[in-house]
Design brief:
heterodimer; A: mainly alpha; Cytochrome C Oxidase, Chain A; two-stranded antiparallel ribbon; B: mainly alpha; Four Helix Bundle (Hemerythrin (Met), subunit A); 6 helices; about 0% strand; elongated; disordered N terminus; binds protoporphyrin IX containing FE; binds copper (II) ion; transmembrane (chain B); membrane (chain B)
């Protein structure tokens, strides 16, 4: 069928063949059955998971609560939590895929059990999901939750846009999920290089799923970046000067700036590839003047800054919690800020190291190689700052601290292998081997994922009012750290031994022991994730023993700890006045941590808005129609999107008032609880006696 | 509370609107940042065009396709529309009558639509000379860049109509003012992009 014919069919190119078990039923060879069963099982997990969720919500009659309290909420805290939930759900899938890939390679000497096509889908979805639907929503969620609280704001600047961003991300994630049940995902890897992903080589729906999922995610991140940057520039509390902001807020700002500038290249790359595939343009084709190098440049012009989007927020998290759990203010605050900014600037000047081997001159390679190595300098500054912060601190070995220390060791190693790869001569030897896979997981997992998980443990009590189970958290953290080492250190060796990345199978027997070690590592990582889930379950069961309503369980230093846990929807009954860095610590030392305001005023808050869910649903349907060439769907939902935005333009009266009376009541209730609580010493924080009030007799260790 | 007279980039909302400056400030600043992001988008599409301009693959070349007279008229139309939008902004700033504001907006709309009409004619005549996007890398890049600007203008026109609708329904309220102020930025921005298209695509292509 030609493109035009496909578009004429009311169901486009949807057919029974799109179901994951179709091939297995019609051609039951051994290979087809194994791959069909795995594919069908995965699809069933999605379907059953969705159905069970729907059934539970219906059974407990939670639809209206869910709708009015969560899905349509413009509250940055709720949106932040929804982002993190989305990230964790997607993490489960992406990790299962990683496990499957490791299993395949462990048995890959005789060819393994997966077909090459299936394996290709696995690394493509795994990479795509981990980057766009795990790491991105996770960090966006944590920024969403924490940043406005840290700067003393009541919400982000554009709450409804925030909700729209979330729902567009969720739509993209849903698109990747539904590709398990209907049709196939791309086999072109997470960066989907044409001409392989062009219609002539990949005529199926796979690359289209990938294109539209990334487009939705890209737009969402652009809006998030704008939203966060404006919030940080314009909504800080009085006295919260730029050089007073907590470091996490600084990294949030830097991340937002990268988002604003780095997402457009991705959008352009996706749009041009779509034009090629749908309308026969020749941007990246082999014939008629197309040039795939344009795609490589566009993609990595996004792709490299993207890795700093991934790690910078975690750097911020580490800075906060290393300082908190060392009981010291951050060492070298100013150098940290400058280093972060330097990383932002450099991140836009190194993209070419992703294709040293693709034909440019040695001189160009040298320039980009040196620029890449330069990033080691500001990053090194940060590492030293963290170490000096820990030095002579009263360090508490909490779960977030375990992640941080694991991070410092492992990230240095990942950074060093990065500097190796930044040398074009070395890169020529190991590019496209699993040495590279080991390197980028070595920075992505300790650098991004651990930080986000540490942040999850750190701020969980703030968000939900009770602490997570400490022991299970430690088990999980150690499993992550050692699992990571076991899963990825062998890949350095395998890479040097010449194993290409994305290999479905191999013929070299000496790979096997290392492959098996890596597989065991992946199992340990799975244990880590399961422990995390169990920890959540157990912690919810034990929540009454671990309440920290007073809001400051870790003797925190920035403003988010100065309000109740969970905070009221307006965050601050009275906007605080900031006098310096570590604003809350300053207040505690001055004995002014919990001031009683003389009077309260009405607070204006945004009303709920259906824009987010509606635009998310429309975005999903539009993308689905485009993937499957269902013309009426495309037209219908395109028009729907335009009409929705027009109607929204006519909306007036979008805020509501929280009366001063209610603010007073809630605030007094909390202050009473604070007065009734007994302060906890730092050493006893993980015990039930911790009600969220820090002992006030604290002596700073001189830095 | 005292407020500085012009706190936000863009137009003053008038002295009577003190506290509203704060809200407008974030809104206008946010829109500037959005335009910055959009400018990157255009910049990259320009870059694609520049790298592909010689990739004609034996197909028609710029000389055979571009009609400078028509493009010159389009340029004048767009520049004129920026001027008339400026008049609309002044009408808003000095709180002239609503009729005057709407009048200038409508003139802008007519100019914008006429621009689009001319542009569409250009495309049709290019198509007739085998200047279709699927012919070559060069034409792909052309039909990515120039219609992208055209689509922005079309979006601006729809936005403008909606704003007139909002003013008709609610009068010139704060939100309508914000809308006009942001659309003004958008419109002038597209004008600048067009100047770049005029120079990089048409003048350089015919030089
Ligand atoms: C948590 C445990 C993880 C495991 C066990 C794991 C495992 C794997 C494996 C086996 C591959 C295929 C390697 C190959 O090409 O031979 C892979 C690829 C990849 N992973 Fe992971 N991964 C993990 C986490 C992550 C995280 C956190 C990220 C990003 C934030 C990530 C991003 C990627 C990317 C981008 C690829 C490349 C996909 C491609 O080739 O296009 N992974 N991973
Ligand atoms: Cu890079």
């Amino acid at each position: 069928m030609s493109f035009a014919e496909q578009f004429q069919h009311p169901l486009g190119r949807l057919s029974l063949e799109s179901l994951p078990f179709w091939q297995m039923l019609n051609d039951p060879t051994r290979g087809n059955v194994i791959n069909g069963v795995i594919g069908t099982a995965a699809a069933l997990m999605v379907v059953i998971g969705t159905l069970v969720t729907i059934a539970m919500i219906t059974k407990y009659r939670k639809w209206s609560v869910l709708w009015s309290q969560w899905l349509t909420s413009p509250d940055h805290k709720k949106i932040g939590i929804m982002y993190v939930v989305l990230a964790l759900v997607m993490l489960i899938r992406a990790l299962m895929e990683a496990l499957l890939m490791r299993a395949q390679q462990a048995f890959g000497l005789e060819g393994g059990f997966l077909s090459p096509d299936h394996f290709a889908q696995l690394f493509s979805t795994h990479g795509t999901i981990m980057i766009f639907f795990v790491a991105m929503p996770f960090l966006t969620g944590i920024i969403n939750y924490v940043m406005p609280l840290q700067i003393g704001a009541r919400d982000v600047s554009f709450p409804v846009l925030n909700s729209i961003s979330f729902w567009l991300t969720a739509a993209g994630a849903a698109l990747v999920m539904i590709s398990l049940c209907i049709g196939k995902f791309s086999t072109g890897g997470w960066f989907g290089y044409p001409p392989y992903t062009e219609a002539s080589f990949s005529p199926g729906v796979g690359p289209d799923y990938w294109i539209w999922a990334l487009t939705l995610a890209s737009l969402a991140s652009t809006f998030s970046g704008i939203n966060f940057a404006v919030t940080i520039y314009k909504k800080r509390a009085p006295g919260m000067k730029l050089m007073v902001m907590p470091l996490f807020t600084w990294t949030a700002l830097c991340t937002s700036i990268i988002m604003i500038f780095a997402m457009p290249p991705l959008t352009v790359a996706m749009a041009q590839l779509a034009l090629d595939r749908y309308l026969g343009f020749h941007f990246f084709t082999n014939e008629l003047g197309g040039n795939m190098m344009n795609f490589a440049n566009l993609f990595w012009l996004f792709g490299h800054p993207e890795v700093y989007i991934l790690v910078l927020p975690s750097f911020g998290v580490y800075s906060e919690l290393i300082s908190t759990f060392s009981g010291k203010s951050l060492f070298g605050y100013r150098s940290m800020v400058i280093a972060t900014m330097a990383i932002v600037a450099l991140s836009f000047a190194v993209w070419m190291h992703h294709f040293f081997t693709m034909g440019q001159s040695a001189n160009i390679n040298a320039v980009f190689g040196i620029a890449s190595m330069l990033i080691g300098i500001p990053t090194g500054v940060k590492i030293y700052d963290w170490m000096w912060t820990i030095f002579r601190g009263r360090v508490r070995f909490t779960v977030p601290m375990i992640y941080s220390i694991g991070f410092i060791y492992l990230f240095v190693l990942g950074g060093i292998t990065g500097i190796l790869l930044a040398s074009p001569t070395i890169d020529y030897q190991v590019h496209n081997t699993v040495f590279l896979v080991a390197h980028f997981h070595n920075v992505a997992i300790p650098g991004a994922l651990f930080g986000l998980l540490a942040g999850y443990h750190f701020w969980f009590p703030k968000a939900f009012g009770f602490r997570l189970n400490e022991r299970m958290g430690k088990v999980s953290a150690f499993c992550w750290i050692f699992g990571f080492m076991l899963a990825f250190f062998p890949l350095y060796a395998l890479g040097l031994m010449g194993l290409p990345r994305r290999s479905v199978a191999y013929t070299e027997p000496s790979y096997v022991p290392l492959e098996i070690a890596a597989f065991l590592g992946a199992i340990l990582l799975t244990v880590a994730l399961v422990t995390l889930v169990v920890q959540l379950w157990v912690s919810i069961k034990q929540r009454d023993k671990n309440r920290v309503f007073a809001g400051d369980p870790w003797d925190g230093r920035s403003l988010e700890w100065s309000v109740s846990a969970p905070p009221p929807e307006y965050n601050f009954a009275v906007i605080p006045v900031v006098t310096g860095r570590d604003a809350f610590t300053l207040a505690k030392e001055g004995g002014k941590a919990y001031p009683l305001p003389e009077s309260y005023t009405d607070i204006e808050m945004p009303k709920n808005s259906v824009m987010g869910p509606v635009l998310g649903a429309i975005g999903f349907a539009l993308a689905f129609g485009l993937v499957w060439h269902i013309l009426w769907m495309v037209i219908l939902f395109f028009v729907a999107a335009v009409v929705t935005m027009i109607v929204y333009g006519f909306a007036r009266d979008t805020t509501r008032i929280v009366p001063a009376q209610q603010v007073q009541q809630e605030h007094r209730r909390w202050l009473d609880a604070v007065a009734a609580a007994t302060g906890i010493s730092r050493a006893d924080e993980y015990q039930s006696a911790n009600q969220g009030l820090a002992e006030m007799t604290i002596h700073e260790v001189p830095a | 509370m005292s407020h500085e007279v012009i706190k936000h980039p863009g137009l003053n909302l008038g002295a009577a609107h003190g506290p509203q400056h704060d809200a407008s400030e974030a809104l206008m600043f946010g829109f500037w940042i959005f335009l910055m992001s959009d400018a990157i988008l255009f910049g990259l599409v320009f870059a694609s065009y520049v790298t592909l301009v010689n990739a004609t693959a034996g197909g028609p070349e710029p000389h055979a396709l571009y009609d400078i007279k028509s493009v010159f008229i389009e340029t004048l139309l767009l520049l004129a529309s920026s001027f008339t939008f400026g008049m609309a902004s002044l009408a808003l700033k000095y709180q002239h009558s609503t009729a005057r504001l709407i009048g200038w907006l409508m003139v802008t709309l007519v100019l914008g639509v006429t621009f689009l009409d001319f542009e569409l004619h250009d495309f049709v005549s290019m198509f007739a000379k085998d200047g279709v996007p699927s012919r070559s890398g060069f034409l792909s890049a052309f039909f990515d860049l120039v219609p992208l600007h055209g689509l922005h203008v079309a979006g601006g026109c729809i936005w403008l109509i909606c704003l007139v609708g909002q003013i008709a329904k609610y009068g010139v309220d704060t939100q309508a003012k914000h809308g006009v102020m942001r659309l003004a930025l958008f419109w002038h921005f597209l004008d600048i992009v067009w100047i770049a298209i005029y120079s990089v695509v048409y003048l350089a292509g015919l030089a």
